[in-house]
Design a protein that fits this description.
The complex is a heterodimer of chains A (138) and B (565). Chain A is an alpha+beta fold. Chain A is 15% helix and 38% strand. The chains are: A alpha+beta (138), B alpha/beta (565).
């Protein structure tokens, strides 16, 4: 769990974040990921995404990602008009390969994280985050 | 589906844990002589720790009628498993006799006839009698409240939760968790929290801005009892900011956060806890899933979904306890804890038959004192009912039909929407309806009845969205309410389908025409989570409607067809 102190530490350690360019939609997500990985196969797992199952506020959804041994993490919102959320790189001065941010989700969708490892291979994980209308809890 | 005998064998065979559970079978007793308080409370004290669990009282201080659900479907892996068993199936599963007191307390069948025979249930003064009796047996029994305590009655609304805080302090509660409490708003919750004689727990209550545990709300507390260190970890309702108006408590974030639950379990074990209890408002299916993902929890005291089960459900070696709602039941759970682990248990779900259990005089006087400022307005009769009025069930009850009629009539709309909350006491045929009775099914801090226009397409989208909160096969995506209730509109639902495919055949009942996705319809409803919603309060509107009718009749209207169950 991320503490206030960690937030500052990450601000120093990880060099974020140029928003990557995005193409259209749907298949565009796969294209976008393929463009990042150069079409390389990705191993499922080895990346941990912490995100709410149902967003309390779709406009600002807290998401954190960690991947042991990663040199880069990219985050993708598969259902947003602009799927690419950011690329985070970890240099020798970085602490743990972990990032925490807030993202905007226009609707229910999968959030995908891809970690680039030191040897150039890729690992990936996805989680579904629901964005609901809400209102009828018992 | 397993029988009681199989359950006990399974619990012995599958683990080192041994246990017993007795709800009671008083039909024979009742045939020969009247059931006594001693019969209800009989319990062979066991082990070295006793837990007393109450939950989802919804501010009900007086005995009430409460009809259990006829429809309570489970989907995916939990289809047909408790608590998704109702009526005759429930009686068969737990080997209960139709027509008995047990059947009346736990199922819906013959509710009116059995209610007349066995009387109202609940009452915080009767609960106080039970708590005192258990503590006479074991003086250091731990009384835990699963939340949804401060909300649900006219006196709790008008006193903004004060009556419940005073009375739960008097009852000797030792920890609680929360959900509807938050709808009084951040400032009031903080004010009331200060007045509690016990901790307000929630390991999943976070500071929304920093996304870290809120520092003034503890995650857990310890009790040293009977030579045993008991840890109680709180888990508030995860979807409070989604199911209820987030703008009323914007500083807070909730969520399931089961990784942190694991950290908390490890932390309390590291601090020497011999037994770990989670006081939860997750809802039963969410707790069942969490029990399979978090290691080291001995007992989950479940809440939120208002299930009453006469036996624990076991997930591995974790006991799941379901103690009902509205003060109908109190659970006593005795544990044998030795060498840093739970070795065995004895469990009893105690039904609070108000005619059998004597009210505790001290609590009865305190309840009257809390009600006194509002008594005249609460007890004013506004009409009479010809029919049984009830709410609980996955789809609309007769109370909901009456409320939807009131909204359509008083706000002149084609379609009414009423929230699928699981709280709300029943009214018997022939009974007077008081203002308090109306509050018991409508009370809330955001009860404005809006009037708006929606396209047929938007209405369909809303129904799909709410249905997915109820019938998503992954419990972590369920919010624990029932389906939104509709007036003026019928539909068919296949609960086995995914979101977007469940709802078909939307029909405007007045004309028999299919709902036109492109057309706009006038819609009235209440309990909007949006800030700035305008309109009269739902209880005032329902009262006006009932006064015009004098005597109301509301029958199940068959406007929803369910398949895939």
């Amino acid at each position: 769990m991320l503490t206030r102190r960690d937030t500052f530490a990450i601000g120093l350690g990880a060099s974020a974040v140029a928003l990557l360019p995005a193409t259209a939609f749907a298949d565009a997500v796969d294209d976008w990921i393929a463009a990042y990985t150069g079409g390389a196969a990705m191993e499922d797992g080895g990346v941990t995404i912490t995100a709410p199952e149902i967003a309390e506020n779709g406009n600002t959804v807290p998401v954190s990602v960690s991947a042991e041994g990663a040199t880069e993490i990219v985050l993708v919102a598969t259902g947003n008009p602009t799927p690419g959320l950011g690329r985070f790189t970890f240099g020798p001065g970085s602490g743990a390969p972990m990032i925490a941010t807030r993202i905007r989700l226009g609707r229910t969708q999968d959030v995908v994280a891809i970690a680039k490892m030191a040897d150039g291979t890729f690992k990936t994980t996805r989680v579904e985050v629901k964005v609901t209308i809400g209102g009828c809890g018992g | 589906m397993i029988s009681r005998r199989e359950f006990l064998q399974a619990s012995v065979a599958a683990s080192a844990l041994y246990g017993a559970s007795g709800f009671g079978n008083w039909s024979k007793v009742a045939a020969q002589q009247s059931l006594t308080q001693d019969d209800l409370l009989r319990f062979d004290t066991f082990g070295n720790v006793s837990l007393i669990h109450v939950t989802d009282i919804h501010a009900q201080l007086k005995p009430i009628w409460f009809r259990e659900p006829e429809f309570n479907f489970g989907v995916g892996d939990v289809r047909g498993l408790p608590p998704h068993v109702t009526g005759q199936d429930f009686l068969n599963l737990y080997n209960l006799t139709p027509g008995s007191r047990e059947a009346y307390a736990l199922t819906y069948q013959d509710f009116v006839a059995l209610g007349r025979e066995y009387g109202k249930m609940g009452g915080l003064d009767r609960i106080a009698t039970v708590v005192k009796a258990i503590r006479a047996d074991r003086s250091d029994a731990i009384l835990l409240d699963g939340g949804d305590t401060w909300h649900g009655s006219m006196s709790s609304y008008l006193s903004r939760g004060q009556d419940m805080v005073n009375l739960m302090n008097l009852l000797g509660t030792e920890a609680m968790t929360s959900h509807w409490e938050w709808t009084f708003g951040t400032d009031r919750v903080m004010e009331l929290m200060e007045q509690l004689n016990f901790p307000f727990l929630g390991q999943n209550i976070f500071d929304a801005e920093w996304d870290e545990p809120y520092e003034d709300i503890p995650s857990y507390t310890f009790f040293d009892r009977g030579g045993v260190k008991v840890a109680v970890i709180g888990q508030a309702f995860p979807y409070t900011p989604i199911a209820n108006p987030r703008w009323m408590f914007p500083e807070f974030s909730f969520g399931i956060r089961d990784e942190r639950m694991q950290e908390m379990v490890d932390e309390v074990r590291g601090d020497g806890a011999d037994v770990v209890v989670v006081l939860s408002h997750n809802g039963f299916d969410v707790d069942r899933k969490m029990a399979g993902r978090v290691n080291g929890i001995d007992v989950i005291l479940t809440g939120h979904t208002h299930d009453a089960l006469p036996e624990p459900v076991l997930v591995g070696e974790t006991l799941l306890i379901a103690s009902g709602s509205h003060g109908k039941f109190v659970t006593r759970l005795d544990l044998d804890v030795r060498d840093g682990r739970m070795m065995g248990f004895r469990h009893k779900l105690i039904p609070i038959f108000s005619d059998v259990i004597a009210p505790d005089a001290e609590m009865a006087a305190a309840i009257e004192a809390e009600r006194a400022p509002y008594k005249d307005q609460m007890e004013e009769v506004v009409g009479t009912s010809d029919s049984l009025l009830y709410r609980r069930g996955n789809f609309a009850g007769t109370w909901d039909n009456l409320i939807c009629d009131a909204v359509m009539s008083e706000r002149d709309v084609e379609i009414a929407m009423s929230p699928g909350v699981r709280w709300g006491a029943s009214i018997m045929p022939g009974q007077d309806i008081t203002r308090e009775d109306i509050h018991n099914v409508t009370s809330m801090t955001y009860g404005q009845v809006y009037r708006t226009e929606m396209t047929g397409e938007l209405i369909h989208t809303i129904l799909e969205d709410v249905a997915d909160n109820l019938f998503n096969t992954d419990p972590y995506y369920q919010q624990g309410g029932d389906m939104v209730r509709l007036g003026g509109l019928g539909y068919a639902i296949d609960i086995s389908k995914p979101i977007g495919e469940r709802i078909t055949g939307l029909t405007l009942l007045r004309t028999g025409e299919a709902l036109d996705p492109a057309r706009s319809y006038t819609v009235g409803g209440w309990a909007s989570v949006n800030e700035g919603t305008e309109g009269p309060m739902i209880w005032d509107l329902v009262e006006a409607h009932i006064r015009k009718l004098g005597t109301v009749s509301a029958e199940p209207n068959g406007s929803v067809t369910v398949t895939g169950q």
